[in-house]
Amino acid sequence: MLVVVEQFLNGLQFGLLLFLLAAGLTLVFGIMDFVNLAHGSLYMMGAYFAATFVAWTNSFILGVFMALGATLLLGVVLEFVALRHLYGRDHLDHVLATFGLILFFNDAVRLIWGPAGLVLPLPSWLTMPVQILPGVYYPAYRLSIIVVALLVAALLYWVVMRTRVGMLIRAGASNREMIGALGINIKLLFTLVFGLGAALAGLAGLMQAPILTVQIGMGENILILAFVIIVIGGIGSIRGAFLAAIFVGLIDTLGRAFLPDLLRMVLSSTAASTAAPALSSMLIYLLMAIVLVVRPEGLFPAAKR
Amino acid sequence: MKKAFWLAGIAAMALTQPATAGDTIKIGFVSTFSGPTAVIGNDMRNSFELALDHLGRKMGGKPVEVIYEDDGQKPDIGKQKTEKLVQSDKVDFIVGYIWSNVLLASLKTAVDSKTFLITANAGPSQLAGELCSPYVFSTSWQNDQTPQAMGTYMTQKGVKSVFLIGPNYAAGKDMLAGVKSTFKGEVKGEEYTVWPSQLDFSAELTKAKNSGAESIFVFYPGAAGVQFLNQYAQAGLKQTMPLYTAFTIDELSLPLQKDNAIGVPGAQEWVNDLPNEENKRFVADYRKKYTGKRPSFYGAQTYDAASLINSAVVAVKGDTSKKDEMKAAMQKATFKSVRGSFKFGNNHMPIQNFYLQDVVKDADGQLSLKTVATIVKDDQDRFHQKCPMK
Amino acid sequence: MKSLLNPRNAVVALVIAGLLLLPVYSAVSGNLFILTMFTRIVILALAAASLNLIMGYGGMMSFGHAAYLGIGGYAVGILAFEGIGSGFIQWPVALIASALFALVIGSLSLRTRGVYFIMITLAFAQMAYYVASALSRYGADDGLTIYKRSSFGPLVDLSNRTQFYYVCLACLFGGIYLIRRIVNSRFGLVLQGVRSNEQRMQAIGFNANRYRLVCFVISGTICGLSGALLANNTDFVSPAVMYWTRSGDLMVMVILGGMGSLFGPVIGTIVFLVLEELLSQVTEYWALIMGPLLLLIVLFARGGIMGLLGRFSRG
User: Does B14 contact C37 at a Cβ distance shorter than 8 Å?
Assistant: First the structure.
C-alpha cells in the first residue's frame, strides 16, 4: 500500500512539473493563437541560466530568481524581434518558424556551454529524503516541486480570475479583435503574456534541472507532452491544463510502475519487461486520442469565438 | 533562375570531392558529435587525433586522412554516413560507433563493400556471434562481458540479492543479461526504461526500494548516468541499498556526478592508472594536449583502434589493397594496447582482463577513477562459438 | 502568368531534368554517394508530396505522417524477416496496411479540427511508434535489418543502385501524376471547395468528411509506398522513422517548398536535405544557420520557395 502512495506522489510531482510547462504554452496559444514549438527551448534556457547563475552567485535561491528574470527577458526579446510578426499567420508558419528557433537554440547552447550539459547542485537542505507518513520517505526536493507548482497554479488562478490583467487575458482568449477595439494596448499585452509564458517555461526547466537534466535538446520530448496536455485540457484553459497535467503525470508514472507486473501475468517475463516501457509511454497518447474522439475540443474548451 | 543554377553549382561542387586513392591512408570515423552524447564522440576524436600525433600522422610511410562523420545517435543517419564514407570517400578503414543500434544498422554496408570496420565501443552480441565478419574487428568488448565481470564481483563479495535497472535497447538488454549470467544470488526484479527519452527514474527507484533486494545494478551510459545517480542519492538509497554499475561512471560523467559517485564500484576493461608504458604516455599526453580534460575508456579504445590500424598498414607497407594480409596482421594483435594484455578471439573480439574501479579523490583533490582489483583475467565473450569463423 | 516560360516552370523543368540525369552524372564522376543521397531525397519527396495532398489541397494538417513510412517499412521488413521476399507480396501489403491505418485513424481524427487535428494525428503516430518499439521479435527499439531487398523476379533488381533509383523516381513521378489527376478531378475540386468553405459545400449537399477521409486514405497509401521504398533503401527499419520529429521534418519540407503546389514538396525536400548535408560539411554548427534561415523564409517568403518564384514571375 505504501508503494502505491509513493508512486502516486511520483506521478503527482511529474504532472505538476508538466503543468508549469503547459501553463505558459496554453496561455500563449490561447491568447495569441500562436503555436510555439520553441517553448521547449525556453525551458532549456531556464535550466542553463539557472545552472550558470547558481554557479556564479553560489546561492541557489538568488541564482534561480536571476534565471527566471533572464528567461522572461529572453522571451520578451524573442517576441519583439521575431515572433510578433507572425501573429495572425497560419499555424503552419508558426510551426516552421519556431522549428527553426529550436535548431538555433540547440546549437547556440552547444556553442556557448559545450555539449556536455551542466549540473545544478541542490543546497544541502533539499538533498535528503523526509518522512511524510510513518515508514514513507520521500525526496525533499520532489516535495518542493509539488509545493512550488501548487503555489504557481494558485497564483495564476488569482491573476487570471481576479485581476484586471487577467480579465484582459481572458477577454483576449475569447475574442482577440474585441479587446483591441476597446483601446487596450494589445501589443504590450501580448508581449507581457509571452514573457510570462517564457518565465513559466524557464521555471519548469530550472525546477526539473536538479533531478533530471540540463542538456541540449532537453525541451523537445517534454514539449510534446506539454502539447498533449493543453490539447486534452482544452486550449487556453489554465484549469484544463492543470487537471490534464496531473492526469498525464499519474498515468505515465503509474503505468511504468504497475504495467510490467500486469503484463507478466500474460507474457513471458522478458517479453513483458521489453514491451512494458513502450506500452506505458503509449498510454498518454491513447488517453489523448480517446479524449479528442469523445470531446473534439478538449475537456475544457475555451468559450466559443 | 540564376539563383537555382548558383545553388546547383555549389551543391555539385561540395558533393563531388575528388576521389584520390593510393597516396594517402583514408580513415572514416563515425561517432556522435551532436546532441548531449557528443561528449563521448569528442573524447573518441581527441584520442584518435592524439594517436595520430604519436604516429607522426603517418602510417606505413603514407600520410593519414581522417573524415569525421556525425551519426546523431540515430541508426539510419549512421548508416547513411557509413555509405557516404564507403561510396564517396572510398575509405580504407571505418572506425568509431558508440551505439549498438547504429553499428548494427551500418554493418552491412561496410561488410558488403569489404571495408575494414573497427568498432571502438559498440559490442552487440550478434556481432560476436552469427554476424561476425572477417572485415570487422573490435577494440572494445562484447556488451555482456563488463556486466558479467560485475556479476562475478558481486558474487565474490557475497551480495545476496539485486534489483536490475537499464535502458530498453540492444546494449541495455545485453548488460542485464550479462549480470544475470554470472551473479549467483537472487534477482528480485528487473526494469527497463524508455531510451533515450526517459530521464525520471522515480517509479523504478520506488520499485527497487520496495522489492526487498539488498542492492541495485544499473547500466546508464552518458548523461542518463548522471541523472540516475542524482535521483538515487536524493531518494536516500545510498545509505541503504549499495549500487553496482557498468558503463555508468567514467571520466566524462564524473565532473557532473561529483560526490554522488564516490564509493560506487564499476567494472571496466581499462582504467587510467593501468601500469603500462603505453597507457602512461596516452594519459599524460592526453591531459597535456587537451587541458582540463581526462581520457575515458571510450578514448582508450579509440586510441587502440588507431594503433591496430597502424599495425595493419605497416604490415603491408602502405599498400591497402592487400586486404588478406592486413586482416592477418590485425588478427595477431601485435600492437601495444593501452590496457596491456590484448588478444583477439576467433570472432575478432578482444580477450582481455576486467578490473574493478572505484571513485576517489586524487592528489589535487579532483575526483578520479582508480583500479581496485582485477576481477577476471583473459575473459572471452560467451558468443564466440556461434561465430562461423574459426 | 499563363506564359510557360516563368521562373517557376523553369525551375521545375530543371529539377525534373536533373533528377532524370543524376545517375549519368554519378557514373561519369564516379561519385556513388550522390546517387545514394538523392535516392533518399526522391523517396522522402514522395512522402512529402503525399502529405501535400492532404495539407495543401485537403486542408488537413497531419502531424503524424511519418507513421506510414514506418508501416510501409515494417510491412517489408517483417515479411522479409519471415522469409517472404517477393515484392509482389511485400509492396501490396505495405500499401494495404497503410490504407487501413489511414482509414481507422482518419475516421476518428476527422471528428476534430485545426490544432486538435494536428495533435490527434500526432497521438496516433506516436502510438504506432511505441507499438513498433515493443515488437521484441522484430528488434524492438533497435530496429530490423533487411538482408535482402524486395525481389521482383527478372523484372528489376533493387540491389542495383541505378535501377533502384529509377524505380523510386518512377514512383515519385507516378505519385505526383496521380495527385495532379486527383486535384483536377471533380473529387479534387469538391475537396478544395470544402477547404475554403466547408459550410457552403455541406449546404450544397456534399458530405465534407467523406471527401476528406478518402483524400486522407489516398495520401496515407502513397506515403506507405514511400515507406516501403525507404526500408529497401536503408536495408533497415526502426521505430525511429515514425518518431514525431520525422513527421515534423516532412511538414517542414512541404511548407518550405510551398504548400498546395504540385512540385513544391519535391523542391522543399531537395533544398532541406541538400542544405542539411552541405551545411554539415561546412560547419558542425549547421543548425545555427539552418534555424534562422527557416525563420527568415517564413517571415519574408510566404508560400515557400514556390511562392517566392511565383512572385518573381509576376514581377
Answer: no
